[in-house]
Each structure stands twice: as structure tokens, then as C-alpha cells.
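2024-03-11 09:14:02 DEBUG pipeline.ingest accepted 1 chain
2024-03-11 09:14:02 DEBUG pipeline.ingest length=373
2024-03-11 09:14:03 DEBUG pipeline.predict start
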Amino acid sequence: MEEILRMTIEKVTRSLGFDRVVLLVLDEKKGALAGKWSIGISEEIVQRVQIPREEMKGILLETFNRREPIPVQDTSSYPIIEEREIRRCWEVLNCQEEICPVFRTKELRCWMMKGTRCHREMAEETFEEKMHVCGKCLYFNQEIIRRSDIVNLLLFGSQSFISVPLIARDLVFGILLADKLHSQREITEDDIKLLTTFMSCVSIALETAILYQKLERKVDLGQRQLEETNDQLQQKLDELNEIRSFNESVLQNLYGGIVTCNKGGIITFMNQPGAELLGWREQEVLGRSIHEVLCTNGTLSFFEEFLAGNGALSSDTEIKKKTGEKIPVEIFLSQLRDEKGNITGVTGIFRDITEKCYHRSKMDPGSSLSRSS
């Protein structure tokens, strides 16, 4: 948007034949019309301008209210200063330069007078030279720029000027002031039509820029929200991975073996202690039948019955190692179910009880492994 406004004042001078341009923009936060950019007048001076909206008067106020370009053909009669509001320069500066043309006169517009003796320095004839002196002047900065109308800057040496509203989305948000200082020509009807057409195009460009900025902000907001959501999801994923790693660590280091199989009896998981107890490697048993890996003839029907039944079951029984050797174990079986309650498989926890059986046989030679539910 700022680029469009900067290009606007450049086009007004280069393409439309105006010499000096001042752009004022309404600062909503400060509630003031603020000097923004200029061509042909020092931006340093222009940017000091802060006119509270309630203090706007003259052509500025009229431009805001009428919302159309307003030409002033005779600057000498433009009433922007009231004598009761502003003191004279020689009073403020306690000036003793008696040869100055405004000394002890009622003239208020010293910045428009040639040959003034400002700061014991004669102001030169050109506008640029005059503004160089006025820009350093305490009176000009405090009494004129801050307490009066920015239009004052365009009055020195100029016969006429024009004030044009800047409109976007049906709101006046600024004013463009322009004159033809060097040609000293009046603002013609053709000038007004040309400038009006040009500013209409500028308004359309500004509205498009505003809509684009709003869309861009929405996209940025959506992107930030998406990034925040991704961060939150990543955080949850990291937490789940930690939980999974913890659970895997618990399962792997649990004293005894753990095995899970699906409803068809295919092993989907076995921890390392369980695989080592049976003489297998973990990866070897995955995808194999539980009957092939650990079931003896006596435990085969045991698993099948349990899959068809309900609840959980614990028992002392025998399972086989990879070598075919049978070992006594204490086993606890639990059914796996889906969200609808259908049985999907079995989890088994088994522990070698060879030593326990040895001591039991010593105490009761007739004892044997028995199943209990």
C-alpha cells in the first residue's frame, strides 16, 4: 500500500505536470492527519506535521467533507490563519532586525515574504532556499507547522494549488496537495479531470492492496495456526513414541516371556526374554504359527479352547523349545478384543518353572503339572 502511495506522488509530478506534491495520511491511532511524503518540499518538514482531526479546518476539512478535488486559484486570499491564533514572528523570536520587511508589521506570513532577515541571515528568493531557512526556524516549526495548516507550505510563491481526497473502501483516509510552482499556471478544468481520473485509479489500486493485505494476514494466520497444530501433533506424537518406547522397554525387560498372536494363531509379537527361553530370535518367530513355535500336543487344544472361551486363564503346563525340548511353564492367557467386543487374538505371559517343579518333585514324587482355571 505504501508503495502505491509513493508511486502516486511521483506520477502526479512526472506525468501530470505538477511541481510540488504533499501527501497527508490519516493516522487512526493518533486521530491526526500526518505528513507522510512529499516531492519539491522537504520531507523532513512535512513529516513534522500532525494535525488532530478535530482541529482540521479550511480546505483540508472541506476536502474531507466534500470528498472531491478542490482547486484554490488565488493563494493570497486563502484564509488559513486567524490573527488571534498565531503570534507574529518578530514577537516570538524577540527580533530586532528593523530592516526586515515584516518587522513590527501585522503580516503573519513571513515564510511567504522575500528578503526577510531570519536569524540574521537573508532568506533567498527560491522556495527551496526559503524553506531551508524556515525549516530551522523555531517560529515556523512551533507556530506554523504544528499549530496551523500544512497548506501554508504550498503558499510560498505559488499562485494556485489543488487538494484531492484519497479514498479507499468508501472512506477518506488522506489528502494529496499539489501545485504548479514553476509554471505559475492556474489549475485548469483539464487538470482537475485528469487528476480526478488518476486518483480514481489509485483508489481502485488501494482497495485491491487492502483486500490483498487482509487476505495475506488471513493466510499468515492460517499458516501460523497450522504450524501450531503441527507442533501440537508432533508433541503428542513424541509423547506417544515415548510411551511406546517405555512400554516396549517394560515388555522387553519383563521377567518372563510375552507372546501375542491373532485369531488364526499367527505370532505378532514376542519379547526377547520369551524368544531366548524358547531358543529363537525375536524376528524369527514373527509370522509363524504359535503351534509351530511353542505348543506341544497337550497345549494345542489348550489354546484352541481358550480362543473359543471367555475371560482369562492361568495354568502350569509345558511348551516346547526350538530344539523340541519341553519345558514346564506357568502361563497366563488373556483374550484380545476389538472395540465391538470381538475376539481378535491372545496375549500370553509365560515363565519357566523348571526349578519350581524340581523342588516339588522332591517333596512329592507323584506330583505332575496340572491345569487350573
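2024-03-11 09:14:41 DEBUG pipeline.report The domain at 251-363 is CATH 3.30.450.20 (Beta-Lactamase).
2024-03-11 09:14:41 DEBUG pipeline.predict end
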